[in-house]
Amino acid sequence: MYTIGIDLGGTNIVAAAVDENCNILAKAKTPTAMPRTPEEIFDDIAKVSREAVESAGLKMEDISSIGLGTPGTVNGGIIEYANNLGFDHIPAEKMLKERLGDLPIYIENDANCAALGEAVAGCGNGSKNFIAVTLGTGVGSGIIIDGKIVSGINHAGGECGHMVIVVDGVPCTCGRRGCWEAYASATALINQTKAAIEKHPDSILAQLAKEAGEVNGRTAFDAMRRKDAVGVQVVDTYIKYIAAGVTNLVNTFQPEILCIGGGICNEGETLLRPLRRYVESERYSIYSSVQTEIVKAELGNDAGIIGAAILYKAN
Q: Which of 1, 66, 140, 232 pairs with 105 at a CA distance of 20 to 30 A?
């Protein structure tokens, strides 16, 4: 059995032919090239889907279902809202069927697809209770309980980045103040690093930023590795912010596995070891013999594609 997994992003549209063992057989992609009409975007979705199938040595007749991962809120076959794509109540299922034939179509938020992909084919090792957290421009998340995606009554659930961890804290792009995203995203780390540099212009942290000509998500970690006290403080505080949200998720859902993805996760155990220590010291289930395992995501950009391709398993 073969399926098509589609990752519709603000930068690229990627499609893949995937087998029943979650192996990607072939991929094709094209720039999303916004701003464009939904019709133009779905024309390209169909084009790269057919290209992926052909590259895999298959025909559309071999495909049993199609899964689409998209930013925004999805309600059945309709993308109700995706601000970065300019989508407002787009009949995505109908548009896919018009272009690719009358196949079963499954559509889901892209972060949920990534969580499903990791749970089934990545670091989740097939676990039925699993949470994926992505530390990027924002904080993305997906929750899998009993093998099903948790999306709530209005299909907008699982947005863990917008739980408040600091009441009346710094503003978040969502309009609230003190959201986890505003403290634990890669964007937040960069802002925290810049603030520390401004306060400590003679630090190794400031020197590294000046030499690189920029501040990025690695700057504070690099300074920490140079034994810079300012870099150590920035990293420690940042990991405490991550731990605050992770502990909330562990206390609420007690998943088998919680994974951390995004560029920051490339720090590996430098990030995860202290994160685990903070969570272990603060979690409610301190005396339980069974605890959530906190690990690094494995599939990278393929998580969303694989998750989309196996959406039929979660429906």
A: 140
In this structure, are residues 205 and 196 in contact, taking their beta carbons and an 8 Å threshold? yes
User: What ranges make up the beta strands (E) of the chain?
Assistant: 2-8, 12-19, 24-31, 63-70, 73-75, 78-82, 87-90, 105-109, 130-135, 139-145, 148-149, 257-261, 293-296
Q: What is the pLDDT of residue 173?
A: 87
Q: Where are the beta strands (DSSP E) in 105-217?
A: 105-109, 130-135, 139-145, 148-149
- The secondary structure of residue 14, as a DSSP letter, is E
- The confidence score (pLDDT) of residue 7 equals 95
**For a pLDDT cut of 90, what percent of the chain falls above it?**
87
Q: What is the 3-state secondary structure (H, E, C) of 30-64?
A: EECCCCCCHHHHHHHHHHHHHHHHHHCCCCHHHEE
The pTM assigned to this predicted structure is: 0.90
Asked if 305 and 16 count as a contact pair (C-beta separation under 8 A), the reply is yes
DSSP 107: E
Q: Which residues, in sequence order, are bridge partners of residue 109?
A: 70
